[in-house]
From TrEMBL, chain A:
The keyword Transferase is annotated on this UniProt entry: no
Protein name: Short-chain dehydrogenase
NCBIfam families the record matches: PRK07102.1
PANTHER family: DEHYDROGENASE/REDUCTASE SDR FAMILY MEMBER 7B, SHORT CHAIN DEHYDROGENASE FAMILY PROTEIN
Keywords: Oxidoreductase
Membership in a protein family: Belongs to the short-chain dehydrogenases/reductases (SDR) family.
Key word Oxidoreductase present: yes
Domain of life of the organism encoding this protein: Bacteria
Record Pfam families: adh_short
Automatic annotation (TrEMBL), chain B:
Key word Glycoprotein present: no
Location of the FAD-binding PCMH-type domain: 1-174
Protein name as it appears in the record: FAD-binding oxidoreductase
Keyword list, A-Z: FAD, Flavoprotein
InterPro entries the UniProt entry points to: FAD-bd_PCMH, FAD-bd_PCMH-like_sf, FAD-bd_PCMH_sub2, FAD_lactone_oxidase-like, Oxid_FAD_bind_N
Entry superkingdom: Bacteria
PANTHER family: D-ARABINONO-1,4-LACTONE OXIDASE, L-GULONOLACTONE OXIDASE
Molecular function, one GO term: oxidoreductase activity, acting on the CH-OH group of donors, oxygen as acceptor
Length: 253, 431
């Protein structure tokens, strides 16, 4: 079991990452949160402090920096290490769903989506991996997507970035295994985040962010390779991945 | 996609939905209305054809002082989330309604009350400060000291004075999650009044369940069970509480609440074994009995149901309650959720606050169409003559005249509403 007492979260203000941070704060963990928007970060930190800070107010810290911009990574990682000392876990949780139609005929929009959801995460992983390797323990988790499992007309650019991330994590897992470091690919399904409010989300496929957070923490503790959250998405995506292409083309998924 | 309140009547379409994850820099164009958990029973949480602002994304705690019990949260935080945080730290919300699945914004906007109204007053009486986001004034702090008119309008203001973004609340100290509770059967309304006069002096939480089917032929009218409780100083030895996690899994095609079943239920409920002496009960099971059954509103079927809750002033309450129960028993409608509670004499916290000195009666009714509406008309007449009022949070059908008679301050209130905010309820009762 990986301990989760000192945790850094990049992209901490997303609904899923916030739910993870809340659970960790309530359990008394030391946290370092990185997010782009200073006001939103501050409101998250205030919330976490109410839930779980000690009297001295020492446990919960953060830094406003855009994790999608690799230029910020060195400072953010150094600040996290300074606050946490040994890092039990790093969670990479930023991303943004691009407008698929805008990507269809724009190289710029496509490259931007690939950077935000793919290459920037690869850059951060590359930077932090040696420190985990030297430390000889810990777990790195990154939020991928079921969209990375098979390219679909509705969001294949996003899927491409997340697919690249998944493959990179797979290799990193292989590389860091001898050092005793776990690398977890997290693939959430449909989540009731504020982004999806107003849709019909009554179906059994929809999960609350807090439930997804519980699944993420379990996967990090146990060092699972690939964690679908909730678990049944593993079965759904198994079917979608293996659907014959000649039939798949006729679906508008 | 249609949206409805907890009772599923009415179901309406909105032109737009949005769900800010953080306090918005600027409000979208109106007509706007905030919508939290949708636990009110009617259309005061709906804005047909307008823009519904879902507030559950605003669910962060802002500040808590464990020494004074003053808590500031965003308005989309639920009482459930608040309790989970505060009870282990020895603090309790000053007032809780019958469900903990409501947002604090909703609790303010409806100025909700609880079983402890006779000692604590309504929820709004414990609000120290609010952040209000108005289309005509931006973000403003409102409190009894700053912008007191907007503050008084916002408490019980049905969300019409702007978007409530944060709530600062004074919590009360408790020493455990447990309560000490007691119940007793009463066999008539006279028994109830006598019991109530005695119990309300000794107990901070009191409420009565009443058998609204007892029509005086087989059973005396106004029989029921009186319950009272207080926070326990110490948890009982070997205290363990597991809230039931039942759920009504499907929508039955018709209401499961019907004549014979209901009669049998009320008979069994009335005769349930009661422990005479005070005994321990966990606050969840005692204050929020229905929260253990998720989606309980489904038992009324797809058609939904109505709730009818009125308040009757002290001097008319006895006769009016008796008359209301007579009318309901005679109609053979009504349900097992019939609750009687006397309010305290505190002056109302907000301009449109429902709780006021007197007695409140609340009942559920399956929707049986014309027969149900005819009964409501008869009940309305009794309430009007007794100078009572109906609770907007529980209403899907009252007439504008009925509302205006029960809430005479509505004219002054209307001048303080945000011009970009409106609701289906508001348009209905002010048309």
């Amino acid at each position: 079991m990986n301990p989760l007492n000192n945790v850094v979260i990049f992209g901490a203000t997303s609904a899923i990452a916030s739910a993870v941070a809340r659970r960790l704060a309530s359990s008394g963990a030391r946290l370092f949160c990185v997010a782009r928007n200073p006001e939103r970060l501050e409101s998250l930190l205030a919330d976490l402090r109410v839930r779980g800070d000690d009297a001295a107010g020492e446990r919960i810290r953060g830094l406003a920096a855009d994790p999608a911009d690799p230029a910020t990574h060195a400072d953010a990682w150094a600040a996290a290490r300074e606050h946490l000392g040994e890092v039990d876990a790093a969670l990479l949780a930023w991303g943004s769903l691009p407008d698929p139609a805008a990507c269809h005929d724009s190289v710029e929009a496509t490259e931007e989506a690939l950077r935000i959801n793919g290459t920037s995460a690869v850059a951060l992983l590359t930077r932090i991996a040696p420190d985990f390797e030297a430390q000889g323990h810990g777990v790195i988790g990154a939020i991928g997507s079921v969209a990375g499992d098979r390219g679909r007309q509705s969001n294949y650019v996003y899927g491409t970035a997340k697919g690249m991330l998944a493959t990179f994590l797979q290799g990193l897992r292989h590389r860091l295994a001898p050092a005793g470091v776990d690398v977890v690919t997290i693939k959430p399904g449909f989540v009731r985040t504020p982004m999806t409010e107003g849709f019909n989300r009554a179906g059994a496929l929809w999960a609350e962010p807090d439930r997804v957070a519980g699944g993420i923490l379990r996967a990090l503790r146990r060092g699972h390779a690939v964690a679908y959250v909730p678990w049944f998405w593993r079965i759904i995506m198994l079917i979608i991945r293996n659907f014959p292409d000649w039939l798949f083309r006729h679906l508008r998924l | 996609m249609t949206t409805s309140g907890w009772n599923r009547i009415p179901r309406v379409e909105h032109a737009a939905h949005s769900a800010p994850a953080f306090r918005p820099d600027r409000l979208p164009d109106g007509p706007l209305l905030a919508h939290g958990m949708g636990r009110s029973y009617g259309d005061c949480c709906l804005n047909a054809g307008g823009h519904l602002l879902h507030t559950r994304g605003l669910d962060r705690f802002v500040e808590f002082d464990p020494a004074t019990g003053i808590l500031t949260t965003e308005a989309g935080v639920t009482l459930d989330e608040l309790l989970e945080l505060s009870v282990p730290r020895g603090w309790f919300p000053p007032v809780v309604p019958g469900t903990r699945f409501v947002t604090l914004g909703g609790a303010v906007a409806n100025d909700v009350h609880g079983k402890n109204h006779h000692v604590a007053g309504s929820f709004g009486a414990h609000v120290k400060r609010l952040t209000l986001h108005r289309s005509d004034a931006g973000r403003v702090e409102v409190s009894p000291e700053h912008n007191p008119r907007w503050f008084a309008a916002t408490i019980g203001g049905l969300g019409l004075t702007g978007l409530i973004e944060t709530v600062t609340l004074q919590l009360v100290p408790v020493s455990s999650a447990w309560m000490s509770v007691w119940s007793e059967r009463f066999h008539s309304l006279d028994d109830f009044w006598a019991l109530d006069a005695r119990a309300r002096r000794e107990w901070p939480y009191t409420v009565a369940w009443i058998d609204c089917l007892a029509d005086g032929r087989r059973h005396p009218p106004g029989r029921g069970i009186y319950s009272a409780g207080r926070h326990a100083v110490t948890p009982p030895p070997r205290a363990r509480f597991r809230e039931p996690r039942r759920r009504v899994p499907v929508d039955p095609p018709f209401s499961l609440v019907n004549g014979p079943g209901l009669r049998a239920f009320n008979e069994l409920y009335f005769h349930q074994p009661l422990r005479r002496s005070p005994h321990p009960a966990h606050h969840r099971g005692w204050l929020f009995p229905l929260d253990g059954i998720r989606d309980w509103n489904r038992i009324y079927g797809r058609r939904g149901f109505y709730q009818y809750q009125c308040v009757l002033p002290e001097r008319t309450a006895r006769d009016a309650v008796a008359e209301l129960l007579r009318q309901i028993a005679r109609s053979g409608q009504g349900s097992f959720l019939a609750v009687l509670k006397t309010f305290g004499r505190q002056s109302p916290a907000g301009m449109l606050s429902f709780p006021r000195p007197g007695t409140t009666l609340a009942l559920d009714f399956p929707d049986r169409g014309a027969a149900t509406h005819a009964l409501f008309e008869r009940l309305d007449r009794v309430v009007r003559e007794a100078h009572g009022a109906l609770y907007p949070a529980k209403d899907a059908r009252m007439s504008g005249a009925m509302f205006r008679a029960g809430f005479p301050e509505w004219i002054e209130f209307a001048k303080l509403t945000d011009p970009q905010f409106s609701s289906s309820f508001w348009r209905r009762v002010t048309a």
